[in-house]
Amino acid sequence: MLTYVLIVCCLTVFNLDVSAQNKDNGTVRKFIRDGNKSYTDSVYSSAETAYRDALDENPRSLVARFNLGNSLFKQDKFDEAIEEYAKLSKDESVNYNIGNSYLKKEEYEKAIEAYKESLRKNPSDFEAKSNLSYAKKKLQQQQQQNQDNQQNQDNKDNQNQDNKDNQDNQNKDNKDDKNKDNKDDKNKDNQDNKDQNKDNQDDKDKNKDNQDNKDNKDNKNQDDKKNQDNKDNQSDNSKSQPKMSKEEANYILNAVESNEKNTREKVQKIKAEKASKDQPEKNW
User: What is the model's pLDDT at position 7?
Assistant: First the structure.
């Protein structure tokens, strides 16, 4: 329906502006006729060229300007078409085609305003009413789509934020677990080292006790050996001495007593001599 309306609009413009061509000179009219022929044959680029040539001859040619906008519209050059339409007086046909250009650009709010302006000048324009209704419907769909897209984007952002938070929490948990494991491993290693040191100290003490026991045992063995040697010597001495008879014992006893008597006599004699020497001589 929309394509049909646009084609009807352009053909209507051509027919309405035929009389206006009398205001242009022969060269301008020739360019416009060539443009119209190319336009009818759907060779819109050639039509554009012909209309521009006409405007070069007469920049005030309303027919050339309006049909140039139509040829640009057909080539989807909507911004350029709106620019050319804007240079014309805003009658219902111009506003209608401006609305069609905005409609093609999906700028529905501007299209609605252009159609309303066209209907103010010609309230009975059926095509303008139809396109206005269509533009309003497309605007509602666009707004709903934008709202849905925004909602989807918000959901996506929330999901991304949740994923990020979960990732951060997971990284934090992993870091805490790792630190805890490292701490446990370190404590375990310290405990193992402590136990190992204790075991080493116990082994050292045990070795020392064993050495002391060995030394004591060696000393005891030496003492036992020495005692045994002394005992053996005593036994040997005892065995080596001959047993004395009764007569020999009496003889030895008498000899000892005789020696003691002689010794006492000698001692008394020595004392007497010493005493006699120590007495002072008489002083006669």
Answer: 34
